[in-house]
Amino acid sequence: MSFDLVLFGGTGDLAWRKLMPALFQAFRHGTLPEGGRIIGVARDALTDQQYRALIRSRFDEVELAKRPSAEEFDRFAALLHFIRVDLSKPADYRHLAEVLRERNAETVVMYLATAPSLFTVACEQLAAAGLNTPATRIVLEKPLGHDLASNRSINETVRRAFSERQIFRIDHYLGKPSVQNLFALRFGNSLFEPLWRRETIANIQITIAEDLGVEKRGAFYDSTGALRDMVQNHALQLLCAVAMEPPINAHADAIRDEKLKVLRSLKPWSALALSQEVVRGQYAEGVVNGEPVPGYRQEAGVDPDSPTETFVALRTEIANWRWAGVPFYLRTGKRLAARDAHIVINFRPAPHAIFKSPLGAANSLVINLQPRDGLELHLLAQGADNRRQQAALSPVQLDLDFDKRFGSERVGAYERLLLDVIHGRLNLFVRSDEQEEAWRWVEPVLDHWAADTEGPRPYAAGTWGPSASSAMIARDGYCWSEAC
Ligand code: NAP
């Protein structure tokens, strides 16, 4: 299959840190279809050779196992080309169109790895230059808007040039092997499905914790915050994967229809819920992995009086038959105690206790997303102390480590998603109505914070966020997984 992958923002951070390494891995694994071109596009005047040299030098910063040998890079580099395009200049699109037409590839992927402010002009000009043929697919990176209105406006512009089946909105969490395993666990096995409901599940916790701060992206983050950067997209997509009904088949729209229903069923925010069931925090200086680190307001590019949240914890419910009354707790933040993303399904305790159970030892299923990918089933068993008739049970766990089982050579998120775009598979991409529904749901929280003069609660870097987060979950009689 011949393809041209046009990488707008081809010299940018996303291109060299994530996309090029992912494309190289696909090339190394032999899964990148032969006969393809990868065309970097930016305003610099680079020759193909200069672009190849730039990408080669950037690979020095990629982790060792994912770095090409000199011989591998030479073969990969033959796919790389560069075209100078200023996205604000119509003439440059006409030149791009001429270059693409010369080859007339079966599939043309336009990957917009540029600032979202350029999306509108890029889509309009691609259409004006006739670059929106049915062979074209367009890939959009987050953030797709700042709120519901801006998200809608981007979606409307893109839809004027491309049909929905040509639009691939990336949420790279959906490309993670661990998230695919969540779908496999739920819909490839019958074991858990009868238990996956309000009668047996007490609560569900979704945590995406980062130990890093804002790194070099202080200015971007300061205008974004954790709710827009992580909750509106990644955390809500995980919630959908956990809570959706089994789709009628594995086709993209069947899956996306079910995710949309979950988003539509999220409990609307009341004034009370906004004040008691959402906690926003901001990291102060502290110690992470044994090293002292500055507070958020001291980071480069951040306003010293910034009210931007680097932590969010919230409680919600899903108003449908399966989940009515079951609390879902979502939590994400920067500079937390560990890099750890996981989902905990806490089952209800046995209805009639004939054994002594240790406090807090709920039956639970833990879905580890990162850094480990696997499943832990936490159960109670009769342990060594079985001499007395009324001996307490001991917690034990079944531990499935998918990295060990399937090897570390598994396909990474961007590699998987880029191959899906080239092959036209939309399952792991977000439809516009899903995205708009997610914005609609987070917007009252944004409005509430904009009117709230108290600002975020400080927490010491290297901890699990403000104490109000633990207090919020404790009001229901539960605790976050690391504290139970
Ligand atoms: P970046 O490092 O600033 O790169 C921007 C790229 O766009 C450069 O190649 C730049 O090259 C090009 N560009 C800017 N203005 C242009 C114009 N008028 N015409 C043509 N090319 C232009 O940004 P980034 O970090 O790669 O981020 C790109 C997008 O991905 C952003 O929306 C970001 O939020 C999103 N994103 C980034 C990451 C990440 O890890 N970096 C992760 C998720 C999402 P020239 O200036 O030479 O033209």
Automatic annotation (TrEMBL):
Superkingdom per UniProt: Bacteria
Amino-acid positions noted as binding NADP(+) in the UniProt annotation, renumbered to this chain: 43, 86-87, 142
GO molecular function, one term: glucose-6-phosphate dehydrogenase activity
Active site location: 234
Record-linked SUPFAM superfamilies: Glyceraldehyde-3-phosphate dehydrogenase-like, C-terminal domain (SSF55347), NAD(P)-binding Rossmann-fold domains (SSF51735)
Binding sites annotated in the UniProt record for substrate: 172, 176, 210, 229, 334
EC primary class: oxidoreductase
Domain Glucose-6-phosphate dehydrogenase NAD-binding: 6-181
The reaction(s) this protein catalyses: D-glucose 6-phosphate + NADP(+) = 6-phospho-D-glucono-1,5-lactone + NADPH + H(+)
Keyword Phosphoprotein: no
Pfam family, one: G6PD_N
Domain Glucose-6-phosphate dehydrogenase C-terminal as annotated: residue spans: 184-480
Keywords, sorted A to Z: Carbohydrate metabolism, Glucose metabolism, NADP, Oxidoreductase
Entry's EC annotation: 1.1.1.49
Pathway(s) the chain acts in: Carbohydrate degradation; pentose phosphate pathway; D-ribulose 5-phosphate from D-glucose 6-phosphate (oxidative stage): step 1/3
Function: Catalyzes the oxidation of glucose 6-phosphate to 6-phosphogluconolactone.
Family (UniProt): Belongs to the glucose-6-phosphate dehydrogenase family.
PANTHER family to which the protein is assigned, alphabetical: GLUCOSE-6-PHOSPHATE 1-DEHYDROGENASE, GLUCOSE-6-PHOSPHATE 1-DEHYDROGENASE G6PD
Protein name stated in the entry: Glucose-6-phosphate 1-dehydrogenase
Native species: Caenimonas terrae
